[in-house]
Each structure stands twice: as structure tokens, then as C-alpha cells.
Amino acid sequence: MKIHQNNALGELGSAIGKGLLAGLAATAAITISQMIEMQITKREPSDAQVKVASQTVGVKPATKDQKEQLSQELHWAYGTTWGVARGIIGLTGLKGWKATAVHFAAIWGSSMIMLPMFNAAPPVYEEDPKAIAIDGFHHAVYAITAGLTYDALDAGSKKQRRLRKIAKKLSLKNLLKKVS
Length: 180
Known about the structure:
The chain is mainly α.
């Protein structure tokens, strides 16, 4: 069976898979970041996810434990799924910090729009600047981790290896050896 080099569906599937893994790693990173921050600031965990879920799909946990469990499940599902966006960004040709910046803007920007829409958080202009900075920091941790993970997973592609081989041949050190 011959495999086509430019298989669009295969590339899409690969980008989605790598994105999901990047999203999972990033969700772990933001979770740790938030846990450390909550210990320092004595902030309670957010219930924004549960508020949105109750309004969109009618989920209403009966107990505090159920609410906390649902919040964690939504947090992990939401964060992992946002990794797909990083995969799609990678398909556009954006890589590295540029792709991470676009991903960060998409994630944080959508939360600033969606959460107030569902009365799960106040609009950003009503937020305390310290709370905005903390939220931005956590989203940056997420985006940077997703970007680094995605780029690491993507680095093994056939095209990437070919580019590295060409770059190595073109390196100044090798050129000097050839001239000498």
C-alpha cells in the first residue's frame, strides 16, 4: 500500500491527536499552577464551569462533592479539548511562539467573552486587576505548555527531519569544513 505524502486527512488527524496530547499536558500544568496560586492567595476553586454547564446542558449537581467532581471533569475536558485548537493552528503553518500567542489569545479571549455571557464571571472591566493578572498568568502557563508540547510532538515529522537535514548541510561550520 502506497502512502501519499500530502494526505490532508492524515495531517488533520495527526494535528488533532498531537493537539489533544498537548491540551492534556497543558491542563495538567494549569491545574498545578492554579493549585499553587490558591494555596498562596487562599482563593477558593472556581465554579465557573459548573455555572456554564448548568445553563447550557441543564446539569445541576445535588451536593458539594458532586459539584467539585463535575467542575474537575469539565476543567480537564475543556482544557484537553482546547489542545485541538493548537493542532489546527499548527496546520496553518504557524509554529513556535507565534502559534502559542495565537492560541493564548483564543483561549483567554474566549473565556473573557463566554464566562460573563453565562454570568459565571464578571466582565473583565469589572474585575480586580490582580485577578485579571492571575487569570492571564494561568492561561499563559496553559498556552506555553501546550505550545511546547505540540511543537515537541510535531518535531518528529518527516518534513521536519528533512528540514533539519538541509539546515545541517547549510550550517556555517560545515561550510567552513568544505572550504578548508
